[in-house]
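Hi everyone, sorry if this is the wrong subforum. Our group has a chain we'd like a structural model of before ordering constructs, and none of us has done structure prediction before. Sequence below.
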Amino acid sequence: MLVLAIDTCDARGGVALLRSGELVGVLAHTSAEDYSSWLLPAVDTVVKKAGVLIRDVDGFGVAAGPGSFTGVRIGLTTVKGWAEVYGKPIAAVSRLEAVAMQAQNGAGTVAASVDAQRGQVFGAVYQRRGADLSRVGDEMVIAPGKFISAAAELASGRAISWASTDPDCLANVAEWQERAMLQEAIELVPSFLAPVVAQMAATDLAAGRHTDALHLDANYVRRSDAEVFWKGSAAGRGK
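Answer:
Right subforum, don't worry. Here is the predicted structure as tokens:
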């Protein structure tokens, strides 16, 4: 199976190409160039180096969020276009689950987080089920201290494996001290998630867990600024 995966959820995204479980091409987004102009040339570079064409791909993987509204939208729109043109399935992957999958600590509960800017983190809590993860509760965008408290509540007294691309967001708040006293630590995982997204997408595609262009949904978690400002203005007009 040949799987092409992209992650455009924040500035640390990229492209990964997987063949039969082995990475055959990767390219990280390391510049300030917008994904609107960077992504397609990057994909072209990766597939050409691997000696394949887009139409050879058996399925597409995409990080569906949470992340930047514009970034997520670009990634999903691109994959939708490919799926429609080539008639191939899509596996949408949560970026937080991709973070959680990299946790090495053996605790059965995994709390994954990513910097969401504005003094918040994107976070989610998972329970390990063998090699799989089952999310407990909803994904959230929340202040770091509140995420720590929420994760502790969802863990119901169990030890937690903390995994993050941005551990300082949690380690520098007062609520972390209680977890540190329990000998817990925050594991730094790679922020370049495209290879993990590709692996997870390949697993889902092989198991028949996929969608198509019509039903692919974004996972923004946080509302866009446009929506926030529009609703705020609408509320003001209603006074």
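For your construct planning: The beta strands are 2-7, 14-19, 22-28, 59-63, 90-93, 109-117, 120-129, 132-142, 160-164, 186-188. The chain has a mean pLDDT of 92.
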